Structures are given as C-alpha cells and as structure tokens.
Amino acid sequence: AQSVTQPDIHITVSEGASLELRCNYSYGATPYLFWYVQSPGQGLQLLLKYFSGDTLVQGIKGFEAEFKRSQSSFNLRKPSVHWSDAAEYFCAVGAPTGANNLFFGTGTRLTVIP
Amino acid sequence: NAGVTQTPKFQVLKTGQSMTLQCAQDMNHEYMSWYRQDPGMGLRLIHYSVGAGITDQGEVPNGYNVSRSTTEDFPLRLLSAAPSQTSVYFCASISFAPRAGINSYEQYFGPGTRLTVT
User: Fold this and answer.
1) Do B45 and A43 touch (CB under 8 A)?
2) What letters, b where the CB count within 10 A reaches 16 and e where it falls short, cover A22-56?
3) Residue in A with minimal Cα distance to B58
4) Residue among A101, A105, A107 minimizing CB distance to B48
5) Which residues of A touch B42 (CB under 8 A)?
C-alpha cells in the first residue's frame, strides 16, 4: 500500500534562507509525486508534480523538487524563502494507473521569521 | 471558469442529523474526489468518481455516501452525522490524459467545507 512520510512537522527558517522539506514514500513502483501548499483557511494549490523523466522538477513560486529513486524521496527545495511562503506543505503520491487517488503526508508547517 | 466550488463553507450539525455537501466543477473533468482533512493527519480520500455514474470508495468511506449523476456535480452525503466526522472537507477534480503526457495533468481543489458535529 502507498504511504507518504513527512518527518518534519514544523520548520522555521529566516527570510532569505534556503529551504528543504523532506518527503519519503513507500510504493511498489515509481508513483506520481506531488507537492501542495495550503495557506491558513485556504484550499490546496499544486506546486509541482513528477511523473517520469528528468528527476529535478521545477514548480511555481520558485520551488523545485528532486526525485531520488534510491532513497524513495521527493524533497521540496527553495533557494531563498519569502515571508509569503509561510504555509503548510503536503507531499502526495498517486498510483500511475489512477492519478486521481492521492495519498497525502501529514504535512509540514513552515514558519518564516524576518 | 469558476473552477471547483463547494457549498456550504461552514456547517454545524447535531449528532444524527443528515446533510449533503455540494461540489461542482465546470471544467468537464472526469475524475472527482472527496477528501477530509484532520489535524496531524493530512488529507484522506473518502470517495471518488471516474465519471458520471461511476463511484468507488477511498480510504475512509464509512458514514458517507456519494453519487455522480452528471459530470459537473459530486455531492457527499452524511446520513447520520457523528462527532468523528468533524473535519474540513475538500472536493477535487482532475483531468489527465496519460498518452498526452505530464502537461495534460490538471488538478483543482475546492475551497473546503468546515463541518462541526456536536
């Protein structure tokens, strides 16, 4: 069965610092991988997705993620964090046969300090 | 396009009451899903539909019913609300043509319905 682990519940970074949010997945094959962002009281916005090919994926808002098959990881990165990036971030996996059904991690809350 | 709309935004129910959460999309997407979000647990899939007339259970279907009579609408019904169903509910729609590649993938979440059962 699919599962997603986000080991960091809460991360605090200074504005302008780099960011890496960790995501590990468990799946029998290479799944579809996603990162979402959720601002307080809001819905989810898709940041980026990976299906196959180049393992470094570029997304919106300056985010990127790298798929590492050997580590079953799909970590999200941003070189310089802005105060507006403060939000909750969710990693999700979907089966290649049905990308409509997603399994989410428990989320990482990002706090940005000036 | 209005995207994915959900009504109501907030709802308070008493234990045992029934209600329907509405979800609609105007993008002609085949796939629609319902998730619930609880603190510390991420989002969990309740039910999903791959097209009009076709529905199936997700990870946490108990206590919920769905139907899909049209492509646009995917209502979620609580027949007898319980305090354990207090949550934020999100509807999502997806359009994806695997043969067309990754750029054909579109997914949108609605703004959510915050439900409290007392």
Assistant:
1) no
2) bbbbebeeebbbbbbbbeeeebbbbbbbbbeeeee
3) A101
4) A101
5) 4, 90, 104-107
Residue A14: count of CB within 10 angstroms of its CB: 10
Task: Compute, in degrees rounded to 10, the torsion defined by CA atoms B103, B4, B84, B79.
Answer: -120
Substitution target from B57, B60, B105 for chain A, most A beta carbons within 10 A: B105
- 3-state SS, chain B, equals CCCEEEECCEEEECCCCCEEEEEEECCCCCEEEEEEEECCCEEEEEEEEEECCEEEECCCCCCEEECCCCCCECCEEECCCCHHHCEEEEEEEEECCHHHCHHHCEEEECCCEEEEEC
Confidence of residue B97 (pLDDT cuts 50, 70, 90): confident
- In terms of Cβ atoms closer than 10 Å to its own Cβ (0-12, 13-18, 19+), residue B88 is middle
In angstroms, the CA A105 to CA B9 distance is 24
pLDDT tens for A65-94 read: 999 999 999 999 999 999 999 999 999 988
In this complex, do A52 and B31 lie within 8 Å of one another by their Cβ atoms? no
Q: Residue B93 forms beta bridges with which residues?
A: B32, B108
Judge contact between B24 and B34, C-beta under 8 A. no
Decide if A44 and B50 are in contact by the 8 Å CB cutoff: no
Residue range B40-52: mean pLDDT, rounded:
91
